[in-house]
Design a protein that fits this description.
Layout lengths: L3 E5 L3 H12 L3 E5 L10 E3 L2 H10 L2 H9 L8 E4 L5 E5 L12 E3 H9 L6 E2 L4 E6 L5 E5 L4 E4 L1 E4 L6 H6 L6 E13 H6 L10 E5 L4 E7 L10 E9 H4 L3 H4 L4 H11 L5 H4 L11 E7 L11 E3 L14 H17 L4 H28 L6
Parallel strand pairs: 1-2, 1-11, 2-7, 4-13, 11-17
Antiparallel strand pairs: 3-6, 4-5, 8-9, 9-10, 12-15, 12-16, 13-14, 14-15
This protein binds flavin-adenine dinucleotide (FAD).
Length: about 375
């Protein structure tokens, strides 16, 4: 039987699923709110995540992902805010030319859009959905259009409108931490005096009232892209001292001033870094976690990715788990037998995988910041 699958949200998980279903000749359409480029920050890719991307994507698209990735990160080291070393963790280079250690979010999304053409429909902001008498589901969009399918996949991210409509009680918990995420061109940081030992590894700084991560995104030789660092400053909102209604309205330039002010007493090599952040790529966000991760119950509406399991950035896991969800959901949707049973099994698997990732991300966050 031919199934029609509506995917709400053309982000990482939704686009992976679209590729996977298309390769299995399943009728799939992605309804995406807007044709807005993704932010330019680094995404760590785990071996399980890379395997899931490989499973979902046609070989040329996966090849483009590899070609635009960072192959290797030289481990991790932790310091206090005066750059006194705490510990370090080496990650020996296995020399694998196809290793994928990290990707740029915006580039990954562009790669994932390759070849999907009219499968992705823009300007389709999900508003509501209802079950149809035939057991399917009809989605309605804010532009007045609607579409019907056998399955609706909520892949619309951490602020999922589908979740708000379908599972209104499943609100991710605010962990109390506010992150200011920014981008620093690598050449500018190095010219500005970034110490050698911080250049090619993940630097973690755990201070008394804030923590900070500096993560290199160094493209492969020959890639037409500028190397950079993703800089993530985290503080509990009480320690940050900027009310949410002010913080989330600040421009990138004003956020840079907050960073410079809150790190004024830090080691000059750390404090000086914030001079180089790009205001246009600087924004604040709240760290949240889906605790617990819950299945969405029986029926043709199922979640995927952040919509089901929002987690703090600390684990570098959300995109990887979204890709794993996509691979698992494809398997469920093409399995012979009852669709309802396959979807129930998919959701059990998603809850197990999502719970493990959320718990690990929260555990890692708790190691370097004060959580509510
Ligand atoms: C600074 C930062 C660093 C991160 N680092 C990592 C990392 O190192 N490794 C990692 O694995 N993960 C990381 N993550 C998390 C990762 O980006 C997410 O987990 C991942 O993008 C989730 O994929 P998704 O498909 O569920 O949602 P998204 O990629 O967020 O996609 C959701 C899509 O739905 C669309 N949408 C939203 N609402 C609607 C609507 N009403 N109607 C239609 N469409 C809608 C959005 O426009 C978007 O395109 C990081 C996140 C941030 C912010």
């Amino acid at each position: 039987m031919t199934r029609r699958v509506l995917v709400i949200g053309g982000g990482i998980g939704g686009l992976c699923l679209a590729h996977a279903l298309r390769q299995s000749d399943v009728d799939v359409v992605v309804h995406e709110r807007a044709a807005v480029p993704s932010p330019r920050h680094r995404l760590r890719i785990t071996p399980d995540g890379a395997a899931a991307f490989r499973a979902c994507l046609p070989p040329p698209v996966f090849g483009a992902l590899v070609a635009t990735s960072m192959r290797y990160t030289n481990g991790m080291a932790a310091y206090d805010e005066q750059l006194v070393p705490k510990w370090e963790h080496d990650d020996p280079d296995d020399g694998d030319p196809d290793r994928v250690d990290a990707v740029d979010h915006r580039t990954l999304r562009e790669v994932l859009l390759t070849g999907l053409g009219e499968i992705v429909r823009y300007g389709k902001e999900f508003a509501r959905a209802e079950l149809t008498p035939s057991g399917g589901v009809r989605a309605h969009f804010r532009d007045g259009a609607s579409d019907e399918g056998d399955v609706l996949v909520a892949a619309d991210g951490a602020d999922s409108a589908v979740r708000a409509a379908w599972r209104p009680a499943d609100v991710p918990r605010d962990l109390g931490v506010r992150a200011i995420v920014s981008r620093i061109p690598m050449a500018r940081a190095i010219k500005g005096g970034l110490p050698d030992f911080m250049r090619d590894r993940f630097t973690s700084v755990v201070g008394a009232a804030a923590s900070f991560g500096l993560l290199p995104m160094e493209f492969r030789p020959g890639a037409d892209a500028e190397d950079y660092y993703t800089a993530v400053f985290n503080a509990h909102r009480d320690d940050l001292g900027v009310p949410d209604d002010v913080l989330f309205g600040l421009s990138g330039g004003a956020l840079r001033e907050v960073l410079l002010d809150r790190t004024a007493g830090w080691h000059p090599d750390l404090h000086g870094l914030f001079e180089h952040v790009e205001p246009a790529e600087t924004h604040a966000l709240a760290l949240r976690a889906s605790v617990p991760v819950r299945p969405w119950g029986q029926g043709p509406v199922v979640p995927l990715g952040d919509a089901a399991h929002t987690m703090p950035l600390s684990g570098g896991a959300g995109a990887n788990v979204a890709a794993q969800d996509a691979a698992a959901l494809r398997a469920a949707l093409v399995a012979p037998g009852l669709l309802s049973e396959a979807l129930a099994e998919y959701q059990s698997d998603l809850v197990r995988r999502g719970t493990a990732a959320v718990e690990e991300s929260v555990r890692l966050a708790a190691g370097s910041m004060r959580l509510d």
